[in-house]
Write a structure and sequence with these properties.
The structure holds two protein chains of two kinds. Chain A has helices at about 20-30, 35-50, 50-55, 85-120, 125-140, 140-150, 155-185, 190-195, 200-210, 215-235, 245-255, 265-290, 295-300. Chain A is mainly α. Chain B has helices at about 55-60, 85-95, 115-125, 135-145, 160-175, 190-210, 220-225, 245-250, 255-260, 280-285, 355-360, 390, 410-425, 430-440, 445-450, 460-470, 490-505, 520-525, 540-545, 550-560; strands at about 10-20, 25-40, 40-45, 70-75, 80, 100, 180-185, 210-215, 230-235, 235-240, 310-320, 330-340, 345-350, 370-375, 380, 395-400, 480, 510-515, 525-530, 535-540. The chains are: A mainly alpha, B alpha/beta. The interface of A and B includes residues 6, 187, 192, 195 and 294 of A.
């Protein structure tokens, strides 16, 4: 951060551009060792998902091979009971997990931010109403609710799963963001913004929100992790569309064909490990998110 | 009691340097310090923020935390070099050795343990008190710091800040230290409490005859209590002399500068650097100082014709009881006053006297329980949130804590642009020109450079100037300054006060100056109101009230001011 910037007289003051903010956030996260490991692992998974058509040796549901074969040079991780190549399924399946994780995480974060911040800023009756709704979502046990909604919306594919995960996943984030908003609301600079003639909307989203970047980014990675696990869980229980290939349906079919009893541990182990690794990578990234909303920490970290 | 003043050396510091960080990036907080303490001496260590005084205090007690580390030098305590001891040896050293009382010592108590348990923990850890004597020793210690024996069964949350600080002093005493380091022991306390705790420390030192080092930013407090004073500036001790010499014959220029900011608000003529005495100004019609440093830019300010007064009449504010069974809190009780255009009025009182609540009610942030507040024909009490802009374009506020009043993520330019856009309707280049003008008005130049800065790149004084510039953005008629200088170093205070005074004189802004600091009130205000527990106990011309106080509470406030020249005058 150089202090000797000499701006031309004509330049009109503008807000920090979103790209600058993004670059700042990214470099802060990268400077943390654990987060760097997480980013590398996540990057690998994303590359695999994007280039699946090039990497995967066979199609995802190409099933003309020997059934339940052990690993061989032709099929590194063996084949399924239906005669599909496990490695190919694993590679294609990463698309679904990452897509569901990121999209569901994004949507539940957006809902959490909108509800959490307005809930934290308003007082009186409105806050009570939101309080009631959020508490309702918090006290209902997550998995049974997901199962009920999934059964109700049966046959909707991954779109349905995203909706289910978002509906059941936003409330916790909203609660965390609300308490932070409440503590920021009483800070002097927020009162000062009122004195500057700012409207409530602007106070919430331009004064308060940027001070919670780390919480929101953290909330996103947390929600994405939960979404990946929930998606795998729902599909494992057979509540998703079992015709698509994802890590969750791989587990579902492996369980269906008693893969463990036949000694085909790779069928359960490989997708399970991938789910765990992906979730871990997101959690590791969260370690690096802490320093974001503290400029002083940032300058120290930069050196 | 005679102070057993022998010349036996207790502590010797040789060529001590303390760094933060390593290598070329290291900050040298303490540089080549050299001094010795005799047994039983009371030494003051004075400096402004960033002078390295606390770093030195922590180094003396072996409490330096990374990234701070002793770069070189020796600290000889009773012949042993503390700098080279490891943690276990240091812990041994604490008994009968060195103890420290921190500024936030009142928050250093564990909220879920009773005060008695705090003492027992220490007795047990060091084993220097036999089990059956736990109680009697704890009682003796709380007695020494003038606390009733019932505090032993209380929890920290049930005690006031002053009582908690006394408890932490008693805890420090429990190991019978030979050297006590007090790091700003009273700074976080209320004025009146500050005075009382300071007296206890002085009494204790005389009675127990330990060696004391008092670290403070307040030369007044130090001169009142210490026998010898060391003045620190930028990591070095610039002057080390007996208190009397520092006061009457200061050698160093920095010491002289610090001293020049102290005066007795009761004196007939009160002058501070940059301030000519107020009465003389009134008599001769001259300005604050012959050469005002930052003449405000008046160009963009249209002449005002419709100056309005703030009328506060019979206002009370009652907060609901904090806990069930307690009575409601009456923060403000039947207060009436009028702030005329161009007038400056001081609102003084200790913390909890309701002065900030009044500020909040005038600015419509809080609603009074009863009474009325009007600004011109605007009824402030009934003002709806959506119409706040009407009020705030004329009534603005300067906040106490410049570190909290600026959003850490916005540049100075953004912070100032918002009120300009909201209140004056200027946009784009015009708004920017106005922002730069405001920065110039508050003396932050080069303006371009300051506009691009983020708050953490500014010093406290610069931040407070930005806060003032923001308050000026709407061309207000009234500025409410809530302790605008209490968080600033002494040398910066005069500058900020001078700026406020210039604005008032040249822009015709009226000012409500809220403070507990009577000296600054004397310098910048014409009239004064003294508040005690929400009630006005005294009001009138500032100089008259302070020179001839009639209320007992005003006298107590005046007595609590540390004044190095009290004995000399």
């Amino acid at each position: 951060m150089t202090t000797t910037t000499t701006r031309p007289e004509t330049q009109i003051p503008d807000a920090p551009s979103p790209w600058k903010v993004f670059a700042r956030v990214a470099s802060t996260i990268w400077s943390n060792g654990k987060a760097r490991i997480g980013l590398v692992v996540l990057g690998l998974f994303i590359l695999i998902a994007v280039f699946a058509p090039l990497i995967a040796p066979y199609g995802a549901s190409e099933n003309g091979f020997d059934r339940s074969a052990d690993s061989s040079w032709g099929h590194w991780l063996g084949t399924t009971a239906a005669g599909e190549d496990v490695l190919s399924q694993l590679i294609w399946g990463s698309q679904i997990s990452i897509f569901v994780g990121l999209v569901a995480g994004l949507f539940s974060t957006i809902i959490a931010v909108l509800i959490g911040l307005s809930w934290g800023y308003v007082r009186g009756f409105g806050a009570d109403v939101i309080n009631f709704i959020v508490n309702l979502f918090l006290v209902i046990p997550g998995l049974p609710l997901m199962i009920v909604i999934a059964a109700y919306l049966s046959g909707g594919g991954i779109g349905m799963i995203i909706i289910v995960v978002v509906i059941t996943g936003w409330a916790w984030g909203a609660r965390v963001l609300r308490s932070q908003t409440q503590s920021l609301r009483s800070r002097d600079f927020v009162t000062a913004a009122v004195f500057s003639g700012e409207r409530p909307f602007r106070i919430v989203f331009r004064e308060i929100l940027p001070n919670m970047t780390s919480l929101i980014v953290g909330n996103f990675f947390g929600a994405a992790t939960a979404a990946i696990l929930a998606e795998a869980g729902l599909e494992y229980l057979g509540l998703g569309d079992s015709s698509i290939v994802s890590w969750g349906t791989m587990l579902f079919w492996a369980q269906n064909s008693n893969a463990l009893l036949t000694g085909q541990w790779a069928l359960l182990f490989a997708p399970g490990l991938c789910i765990a690794l992906l979730a871990t990578s997101l959690t590791l990234i969260n370690f690096g998110v802490d320093g974001i909303s503290n400029p002083r920490l940032r300058e120290g970290a930069k050196k | 009691m005679t102070n057993a003043q022998n010349n036996e050396t207790l502590l010797e510091v040789h060529d001590l340097s303390v760094d933060y960080g390593y290598g070329p990036d290291a900050t040298h907080a303490v540089r080549n310090i050299e001094f010795r303490l005799a047994r039983g001496e009371f030494v003051g260590l004075v400096g402004e923020s960033g002078s390295g005084k606390s770093t030195l205090g922590f180094a003396l007690t072996g409490l330096s935390k990374p990234p701070a580390h002793i770069e070189k030098g020796r600290i000889l305590f009773g012949g042993k070099d503390i700098a080279s001891l490891d943690q276990a040896q240091l812990r041994e050293q604490r008994h009968g050795g060195i103890a420290m009382v921190l500024q936030s010592g009142m928050n250093a108590l564990n909220p879920v343990r009773s005060i008695r348990n705090h003492f027992v923990d220490i007795f047990r850890a060091h084993g220097h008190v036999s089990h059956e004597n736990y109680n009697s020793r704890a009682l003796e210690l709380v007695g020494k710091v003038e606390l009733p024996k019932t505090v032993l069964d209380r929890y920290p949350a049930e005690l006031s800040g002053g009582m908690r600080q006394r408890v932490s002093i008693a805890l420090a005493l429990s190991l019978e230290p030979e050297l006590m380091v007090f790091d700003e022991p009273t700074t976080a306390l209320d004025v009146l409490v500050q005075h009382a705790v300071m007296n206890t420390i002085i009494e204790l030192q005389k009675a127990e005859n330990f060696t004391a080092v008092l670290i403070s930013h307040d030369l007044g407090i130090v001169l009142e209590s210490a026998q010898r004073v060391m003045v620190m500036h930028e990591g070095r001790i610039v002057e080390d002399a007996p208190a009397g010499d520092i006061l009457n014959n200061p050698q160093n220029e920095y010491t002289r500068m610090l001293l020049s900011h102290y005066a007795d608000p009761r004196a007939e003529v009160v002058e501070l650097p940059g301030f000519v005495d107020r009465n003389r100004r009134a008599a001769t019609g001259e300005k604050r100082a012959s050469g005002a440093t930052h003449p405000p830019t008046v160009s963009s300010r249209e002449q005002r014709t419709d100056q309005k007064a703030i009328v506060v009449s019979h206002v009370s504010k009652v907060y609901p009881a904090p806990r069930r069974g307690e009575s409601p809190v009456r923060a403000v009780d039947d207060v009436s006053f009028t702030l005329e255009p161009g007038q400056s009025l001081a609102l003084v009182g200790a913390s909890g006297s309701g002065k900030s609540t009044i500020a909040k009610m005038i600015t419509a942030v809080e609603k009074p329980t009863s009474g009325s507040i009007t600004f011109g024909d605007l009824d402030v009490v009934k003002l709806r949130r959506s119409r706040f802009r009407t009020l705030h374009s004329d009534v603005q506020m300067v906040f106490q804590d410049p570190y909290a009043a600026l959003n850490p993520l916005h540049t100075v330019e953004y912070t100032l642009t918002r009120p300009v856009v909201n209140f004056t309707g200027l946009h784009g280049r015009d708004a920017r020109r106005r922002v730069l003008e405001l920065l110039d008005t508050v003396g932050l130049s080069p303006v371009e450079e300051f506009a691009a800065k983020l708050p953490h790149q500014l010093s406290g004084g610069q931040r407070q100037r930005v806060v003032i510039a923001r308050a000026l953005a709407s061309n207000p008629q009234v500025i409410i300054a809530d302790e605008p200088v209490s968080m600033l170093d002494v040398s910066l205070r005069a500058g900020v006060l001078a700026l406020l005074e210039d604005l008032r004189e040249q822009w015709g802004v009226s000012m409500l100056y809220i403070t507990h600091d009577l000296l600054s009130a004397r310098v910048v205000t014409d009239n004064i109101m003294v508040l005690n527990q929400g009630r006005v106990v005294e009001k009138g011309n500032t100089a008259d009230v302070l020179r001839h106080p009639t209320d007992e509470y005003t006298m107590r406030l005046l007595d609590a001011i540390p004044n190095p020249r009290k004995d000399v005058a």
